[in-house]
Structures are given as structure tokens and as C-alpha cells.
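User: Can you predict the 3D structure for this chain?
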Amino acid sequence: MGVWATVLALLALVVGAVAWALPARWGAVTPVVLRAHGAGTPGMVETASGWVAGGKPGPAAWMLAASIRAGLMGTNELSARLTGSLITQPGYRVLGGGDALLGRVTGLRVPLLTNAMLSAFDLFLPTTNRAVLREFLSSSRLPVTQGLLRARGFAPKQFVAADRAGGQPLEAVLLMAATLGESESFHPDFARELAVLGAAALDGQPADELEEVLLDLLMVGRRLDWTSVRELLRVMPDRDALRQWTTVVRGSPEELAELFSAAVLSQRPAGIARRWSDPKEREGLRVALTGGSGSVRAFAEGKLPVRAAKWSLDEAAPWVARMGWLGALARTGLMWFAGLIAATALRLLLWDPYGRKRQGGNGWGGSLILACSIALFLNLASEPIPSRNPIKNVPRVRLLTGAETAPPPISKSSKKGPIMEATTIATIVLFAVIQATVYIICRRKISEIRSMSEPPGLRLRLMENEENLFDAGLYVGIAGTAAALVLQVLQLVEANLLAAYSSNLMGIVTVALVKIRHVRPIKRELILEGSTGSHDVVVGTAAVPREI
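Assistant: Here is the predicted structure, written as C-alpha cells:
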């Protein structure tokens, strides 16, 4: 039995280690799996190199900046090619690349040389250029161009009206949008949406939805060159996606290169904005950018956070990336199998040491419970711990002026969060299952001794011999608390004293239940049974021999 128990224990250790090392998780995506999604797809350096070769140094410069910040290889060669392209074609500094439509506009005045690329909005702001573009676009037959040109007379709420002093920005952004529509730079769905909004805008009437789109286009045009604006809007499916993307750019202007590169590579700008809105997910985007476009697309479409694993079998990452949730299911199955093997080994080693058939059943119920406990522990311990939300609403000292009033107090109900986190509940459930297993083992041992045919005195001595087993709940509870505290000190798990000390508390409850509810009555029964069958009768304090 001992040899088989050792073999099974080693097999359980191997299976559990393999399952633990698989980079598949239910609650997260590991970086190696996220990068595996990008295998065979062009990355930032390759995409930027293609833009330089195609005469689009503007977007290539933004992607080069993101590649340098990501620490990718090949950025020096890309930078040299980009510089050479701008030297041979100095006009690219104006538009960020060539543009066949604007090349046909006569009388368009733009600076030939600048130290940096000209922003797209600055190209449409001069009075001369606006007049030339109005005349050039007036002959267009595209619905989106016609609708945007006719919308010039609507009554704005955040802009100054185009026909008044100071209305140059509104007219400039309208002309910029009309030029984008004429050059077919908008996503087809977005172009149809803008055509409807432009046609619905009436002179002297507000057009709130159109104005919101124009404000977003103004923000994009002020930060990007003309060619980069065109590349971005090709992948922008609608105005909601544009609003989400510009919102995160306003909040993180220093990360514009990464956000632009991610939106273009993934062709999912709304997904990128959604993930970036959570500060805990921003590092995941940076990891995705180090892979190919497939990695960025998988990040934008996914919902799981990106969390690094302490120990991972990186060679299995491509398989996990292809299998999806089936990889996590296979890993969980291996952990349950390892738990079953370990429980069988413990049963052979501890529960039946002499190879005798126990009374009261074969004990597989307890083995299954122990197997479930081991597998549950492995699954919970290997899953990533969700990071805590940053503390918000930190009180600040603020002096109120006479025109201001104190803000209304925040109700307590608005601050109230969940009583316990999901990981805390899962840990407490794990400790409860372990203590339940100990309780069942103790109950089975008590029933086994009670049903023996040996004399009461011998059974009483056997009960006393199992005192250490009956105290096992307390030992396991203390061990669980100590292990949890050590893991918290080493920062392998999230610090949570409630989850740690719950193991000790449950151990105390289990031992009290076993000894008071079960052991004490059985001992009393055996003592009385032994006294009844003895040759002496106890009277007061003296023992009187019984007559036979």
C-alpha cells in the first residue's frame, strides 16, 4: 500500500504541476497567450514600414513613437527610413503623406517646410484655403459632402456660428469633414450617418448630434496630421466609436501614439477605448502592442484582464490561444484529476494502512470530498487575484468663494460597496470544504470504533488513541491561517485577514463539534458499558465486591 500511495502521490504532483503551468485561466489572459494571438500578423514596426514605403510618413511617425515606447526591435532602421522619406519628399511634412484629392485643389496655400508635421485642422483654418475648398467641394455629388456643406448655417451651442465673427473654427471643421467625405476617408457606415446628420441640419436650428461629431473631429484634427486622420477614420465605424476614442484621448493625451496605433491595428477603436477606460487594463494594451495586430484585436474584443502568471509553460501558449475557453476547461480537468489521484493516495496511506477492509463502506465518499477540496484549492490558488480599485473621492481641502456653495454631502448608501469580495467568499468556501472533509473522516473513525466487537475498555483506549485525529481540524485550521498569512506577506495573494483567520475559526468550530457532540457521548457510553459488565459495583467512595 505504501508503494502505491507514493507512486500515486508523485503522479498527482506531476499532473498538478502540468495543469498549474498551462497558461490558460478562467478569469484572465496571460501575456504569452495574448502575444500568441498575434503570431503571423503584422506588428507596429512592419505596419509603419509599409506606410513609409507607401508614402504615408505621418501615421508611420505615430506608430514609430509607440514602437519605441514599447521597446520593439527594428525601430532604428524604421526611423532612418522615415527620415529619408521626409528628406526626399519635404512636402510630406504638410499633409503627412500624399493626397490625390487635395493635390487637385488649385490655390491651396500651405507651408512647404515645417519643423514638425502640420496638424490637419491648421490646413483648413486659413481664410484663403476655406474659400478655395468651398468652391472646389461645391460641385461634389456625394451625399456626405453635400450634407456637410449645407449644414453651415445651423445654430451651434458650443461653436460660434460660421457666419459670425469668430466662426472660423466651425467652418474649418465642416470643410475638413466634407473633404474627408469627398476623399472617401470615412468608414462607409460613418459616411452614411454623417450624410443623414448633415441633411437634417436646418439653418438657424440647433443640431446637437452633428455638433458633437464636429467637436470630436476638431480634437482629432488638432492632434494628428491629415494622413493620420484619414487612416484613423477609415477604421471608425460610427460616431459613437469616435466619441469613445476621443474621450480617452482627452484624458490621456500623452498616450496618443499608443491609442492611435491600437485603434488602427485592431480596427476596433471602440473596444480599445472601452479597455483603456479601466486604468487596470492599460498595461494589457501595452502588452498587446508588443505582439501583432492579432494581439491588439484580441485585446480589444476581449473582456478578461491581462495578468502575468508566476509560473507558465510558454510553449503551450499557441495551443491555448487557438482553443479559447476549452484550454481553461482542460486545465481545470487536469487539476480535478490530480486532486482525485492525491485523495486516493492519502486514502491508501492514512485511511487503510493495514490493507484491511473497513467496516461501514469503502470510504470513497470521503475520497471524493477530499479530491474536490484539493482541486478547488488548486484552481483558486492559480487564478489571478483581481486588483483593488483605486481609492476615489479622497477628501481635499477647498476654499469656497462667496459665489460658490458647499457641495451636497454624499449619502452613505452611495459609498457602500459589496460586503465581501468574490475571492474572499471563495477562500472561505475552500476552508469550509476542507474542515467538512476532516469532520467526515473523524465521524467515520468514531463509527468504526463504536461498531467493533472488542470489549468496551479496549474501544475506549482506541478512542483515546485517536485524540490527535480528533484535533486535526484545529491543526488544519492553524496551518491554513499560517499559509494564507505567509502568501500575503510574500505578495503572492491579495492581503485579506478575514479570509486568513476564517480557517482558524472553522478549525475551532470543527474540533468543538467533533469532541463535544460525538466523542464525549461515545466515551460516556463506553464507560457506562464497561462499568455494567465489571465485577465491582461503585458505592459512594468504596468499592464493594459483587456476589456471583
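The beta strands are 536-539, 542-545. The chain has 28 helices and two strands.
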